[in-house]
């Protein structure tokens, strides 16, 4: 058997291809950012055609850097930004509109319309999700209602929907020339349309959203052979054998396979996932219920999730919109030049507030400003906002689980930031632990693909690969932690109730 697995990580900010060996170590990486298209306040789009071009390019980069060919690759795993909706014409292979990204809030009116009959929790007992702009369902509905000719084409069976895993799989397996139109259970669980118990699309919910079932991909497990790469691909004939939404992939890559295990990933947003085993658990504290993973014909593993919309993207905002840093890592230097936040708190409710608040009416707020405040305080407050939001989610997980987590496994682009990780341990009051391979998202997809083709024999092989790299112990005294949390929560209340009829 070939000695490597390649994982394609189609993220919000960039697409990566990462080649792993049997130990789960990274052999080579290719990465390319794609454009963030921001046509109006609250709108976030990606060009799906650009994403597919980038995916092909990064596969070439990774293979080239490792000096490997497709013959060295046993299988391909795919992981992806979840919820982001691509709708394309199955005859031409062209998207009929830009992909509407998970952070996009344009569909609030559709949410309100659907919620008018039964409230935002109307479908939650079946799909685990409240009605919110975050999930794919209202994004598909928006495209069908607003793109000229889309409704007719959809009714005629000419349009396909997919999250970006499905878009990449379809293209990689031949596109309009016989591409496989499938997604996995974890991605399907983020659409609003999948029944968590039966793992099938719900016709009544599709109908309520006005989405024809013919657009929907087949729902498959997270680890099985979906198809092989088509003949013009650098990976031709290689089996595509694993798909997991990126947060579930990170949980899998952290080897958090058992009930009660968890992880928090710090990327564009932050996502804490808590494994609830084979049981569907409904949150009483603002968390989502989602599928964790399903390997082939094996049992379905479920999870509770605390999704935070804006964390790394707040650092991008400091860089791109305010211009106070020229690269993301610079934020740490800036923040460390002051002893504290100078009384400044940032609530980055750019897309409203997600877990555990679910307040679409919230917008970003910077509070506590005095003339003393400077860019260093803003940088510090931005990092602190990431940690405070995670604390709010962890409180919800602890309340739902009925036990307190004793440490937090972390990963993602932001965990390179020492100041943030130390502050995170301080405001949580529990240690924060980073594994050697912090690219757990890609690793999780590689694991799913490798298990399907016998590259790894079972979960024990994967657990044996997990190794601790660094641990941050809490060092803040309790009174100071309580004071900071009180001020943070006061700041959160200031961001709420902002959007009304005049403010979009
Ligand atoms: N050293 C750093 N300090 C703070 N934020 C960082 C640092 N390095 C990267 N980031 C942020 O992390 C994000 C990238 O992380 P990544 O895991 O690649 O995200 P994604 O998978 O969402 O594309 C970006 O939003 C960037 O602003
Ligand atoms: O691409 P990321 O890492 O920001 O993850 C996005 C999430 O999947 C959105 O739910």
From TrEMBL:
Binding site for glycerol: 82-83, 134, 246-247
Domain Carbohydrate kinase FGGY C-terminal intervals: 264-452
Annotated Pfam families: FGGY_C, FGGY_N
Gene3D superfamilies per UniProt: 3.30.420.40
Entry keyword Nucleotide-binding: yes
EC assignment: 2.7.1.30
Keywords attached to this entry: ATP-binding, Glycerol metabolism, Kinase, Nucleotide-binding, Transferase
SUPFAM superfamilies: Actin-like ATPase domain
Domain of life: Bacteria
PROSITE patterns reported in the protein's UniProt record: FGGY_KINASES_1, FGGY_KINASES_2
Residues the record lists as binding ADP: 12, 16, 268, 312, 413, 417
Transmembrane segments: none
Reactions listed under catalytic activity: glycerol + ATP = sn-glycerol 3-phosphate + ADP + H(+)
UniProt function note: Key enzyme in the regulation of glycerol uptake and metabolism. Catalyzes the phosphorylation of glycerol to yield sn-glycerol 3-phosphate.
PANTHER family: GLYCEROL KINASE, SUGAR KINASE
Protein name in the entry: Glycerol kinase
Organism: Microbacterium aurugineum
Species lineage: Bacteria, Bacillati, Actinomycetota, Actinomycetes, Micrococcales
Gene (UniProt): glpK
């Amino acid at each position: 058997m070939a000695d490597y697995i390649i994982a394609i990580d189609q993220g919000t900010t960039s697409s990566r291809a990462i080649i792993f060996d049997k130990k789960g170590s990274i052999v080579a990486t290719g990465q390319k950012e794609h454009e963030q298209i921001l046509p109006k306040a609250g709108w976030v789009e990606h060009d799906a055609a650009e994403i597919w071009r980038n995916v092909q390019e990064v596969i070439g980069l990774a293979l080239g850097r490792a000096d490997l060919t497709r013959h060295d690759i046993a299988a391909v795993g795919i992981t992806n930004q979840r919820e982001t909706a691509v709708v394309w014409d199955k005859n031409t292979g062209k998207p009929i509109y830009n992909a509407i990204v998970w952070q996009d809030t344009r569909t609030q009116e559709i949410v309100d319309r659907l919620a008018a009959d039964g409230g935002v929790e109307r479908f939650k007992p079946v799909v685990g999700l409240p009605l919110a702009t975050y999930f794919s369902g209202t994004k598909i509905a928006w495209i069908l209602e607003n793109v000229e000719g889309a409704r007719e084409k959809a009714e005629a069976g000419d349009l396909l929907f997919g999250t970006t895993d499905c878009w990449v799989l379809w293209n990689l397996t031949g596109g309009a020339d016989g591409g496989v139109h499938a997604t996995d259970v974890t991605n399907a669980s983020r659409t609003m349309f999948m029944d968590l118990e039966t793992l099938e699309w719900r016709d009544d919910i599709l109908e309520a959203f006005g989405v024809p079932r013919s657009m929907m991909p087949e729902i498959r497990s997270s680890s099985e052979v979906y198809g092989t790469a088509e003949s013009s691909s650098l990976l031709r004939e290689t089996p595509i054998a694993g798909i997991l939404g990126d947060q579930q992939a990170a949980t899998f890559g952290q080897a958090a396979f058992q009930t009660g295990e968890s992880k928090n990933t710090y990327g564009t947003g932050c996502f804490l996932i808590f494994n609830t085993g084979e049981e569907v658990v409904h949150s009483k504290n603002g968390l989502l219920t989602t599928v964790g993973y399903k390997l082939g014909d094996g049992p379905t593993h479920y999870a509770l999730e605390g999704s935070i919309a804006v964390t790394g993207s707040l650092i991008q905002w400091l860089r791109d919109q305010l211009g106070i840093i020229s690269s993301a890592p610079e934020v740490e230097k800036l923040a460390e030049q002051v002893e504290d936040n100078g009384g400044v708190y940032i609530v980055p409710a750019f897309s409203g507030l997600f877990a555990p608040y679910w307040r679409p009416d919230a917008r970003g707020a910077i509070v506590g400003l005095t003339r003393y405040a400077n860019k260093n305080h803003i940088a510090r407050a931005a990092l602190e906002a990431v940690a405070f939001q995670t604390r709010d989610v962890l409180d919800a997980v602890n309340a739902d689980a009925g036990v307190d987590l004793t440490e937090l496994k972390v990963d993602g682009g932001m965990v390179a930031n020492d100041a943030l990780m130390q502050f995170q341990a301080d405001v949580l009051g529990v240690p924060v632990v980073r594994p050697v391979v912090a690219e757990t998202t890609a690793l999780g997809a590689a694991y799913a693909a490798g298990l399907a083709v016998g590259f790894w024999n079972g979960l024990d092989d994967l657990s044996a690969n997990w190794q601790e790299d660094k641990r941050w112990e809490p060092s803040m005294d309790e009174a100071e932690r309580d004071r900071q949390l009180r001020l943070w929560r006061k700041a959160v209340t200031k961001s709420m109730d902002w959007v009304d009829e005049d403010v979009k």
